Amino acid sequence: MIVAIDGPAASGKSTVARAVAQALDLTFLDTGAMYRALTAAVLERGCALGDGESCARIAEELDLTFDAEGRVLVDGRADEARIRSAAVTAAVSEVAAHPAVRRALVSIQRRVAQDAPGVVAEGRDTTTVVFPGADHKFFLTATSSERARRRALQEGRPEEQDALRLEIERRDAFDSTRADSPLVRASDAVAIDTDGYDAAAVTALILARISAPAHDQQHNSGDNA
Length: 225
Ligand code: DC
Description:
This protein is of the alpha/beta class. The protein has 11 helices and 7 strands.
């Protein structure tokens, strides 16, 4: 089974997708972490962010795998602090916009899904490009101020909420307007407005939707499952 969950920056996709994967005993596939790991390597090697060919070459050379918890490993090692750093967050959208980069990472994502009994994938294009035939598709939204509030809380930086909101809005704009695989809601994805819901509630909505009989799913393709 493939469950695909897309949405904008800091919409809670990772937390929710990880919990759904755990509940269903499926592999969690954090595609954003792959673009982040690649961007960390691009920065380390001093490659220009706008040089798509060189970025794609690095993507092809990198040994990207996942551990049992779904953390991305580069050459067998996890470095969450590095891939979530402000420098990587500021650069990742530009690296992720190169079509050759996307081809390289999408092929790894499909291979992970082929090798697993089932996956819960989260990202910007998992419902539209990576797994267009996914069994279940969801699109999480929340206002940028709510997403900044959650991210500031999560990172223990309440005083930086405004700066985080601007960064989130900048990435939303970049990810939604790029030519290759822009962030859009797939017409057959269930939209869930997560404002006012915590991760546990959104996870419960998704699990209920997945276990609902097929005819209910067709009837109820509107918002908030
Ligand atoms: O979800 P995230 O913040 O970890 O994603 C980091 C960046 O990676 C995001 O700004 C755009 C890019 N990305 C993408 O282009 N396609 C995906 N499937 C996942 C992430």
